[in-house]
Design brief:
The structure is a single chain. The protein is α/β, with parallel strands linked by helices. Helices cover 34% and strands 29% of the residues.
Length: 248
């Protein structure tokens, strides 16, 4: 396993109708609106010390194609030194290339790989190290189509496929925890790191500094990053403090 030198903290910007929102458990009917201006939101996190950003095109995840690309591209252009990873509706090589050409650092794909694992083999090997696979679990099965449907794979089977295809990083989300401010599924993260050789970015339910401290302990086991969403927007976590813990 490749262990990353730094464990990244990713403030999350979820885009719906061009605005910054958060969903509860991935439910598009349970939306909390936080900002009309994603660029200003990105600037807020940067002013608090963020070097990384996790952006999800929620409209794209539902539509199966990028919808908020122009906004994401504008964030990239405005903050050229920021490390940005993007997911949501990226389901073909054309749209992967679109984000790569826009200088997005890493592209997250989920539904397409779960429904068609052979797709990985079609990705240009020159950019495979810039592909992150979204492993979202709902009721112990992988969630697809913007987390609204379940696949036939369980997580161990799917990660075995990713291992065989040289995927360099995954994002793991427990959908039942996402946006609920009820803590992380630490045991599931430990379990995955126990059988996977792929560095893992933890997402879903990060609620407190204690969660950050617990996750930091897993860095040497393959934890490469932490995505924080609602806890930042609701002032449950201080971003500077989270970054300090991750970096020390």
């Amino acid at each position: 396993m490749v262990l990353y030198k730094d464990m990244k903290i990713f403030p999350a910007i979820d885009l719906k109708d061009g605005k910054c929102v958060r969903l509860n458990k991935g439910d598009y009917k349970q939306v909390t609106h936080y900002s009309d201006n994603p660029l200003e939101m990105a600037e807020t996190w940067i002013s608090q010390g963020a070097n990384n950003l996790h952006i999800v095109d929620l409209d794209g995840a539902k539509a199966g194609k990028p919808i908020n690309f122009t906004i994401i591209e504008s964030i990239r252009k405005e903050f050229p030194n920021l490390f940005i990873q993007v997911g949501g509706g990226i389901r073909n090589q054309e749209n992967i290339n679109r984000y790569i050409n826009a200088k997005i650092d890493k592209v997250i794909i989920g539904t397409k790989v779960v429904t068609d694992p052979e797709f990985i083999k079609k990705i240009d090997t020159k950019i495979l190290n810039r592909i992150v696979v979204d492993v979202a679990v709902k009721d112990e099965m992988l969630a697809v189509q913007g987390w609204n449907e379940s696949s036939s794979y369980n997580i161990k089977e799917f990660i075995s496929i990713l291992n065989q295809n040289n995927i360099s990083e995954i994002v793991f989300t427990d959908v039942s925890k996402d946006g609920m401010l009820q803590g992380i599924n630490l045991e599931k993260i430990k379990e995955i790191l126990g059988f996977s050789n792929i560095p893992l970015i933890a997402s879903g339910g990060i609620t407190s500094i204690k969660d950050i401290e617990n996750l930091k302990k897993l860095k040497d086991k393959g934890l490469s990053g932490i995505i924080i969403g609602k806890a930042l927007y609701e002032n449950k976590i201080s971003l500077p403090e989270a970054i300090k813990i991750a970096e020390n």
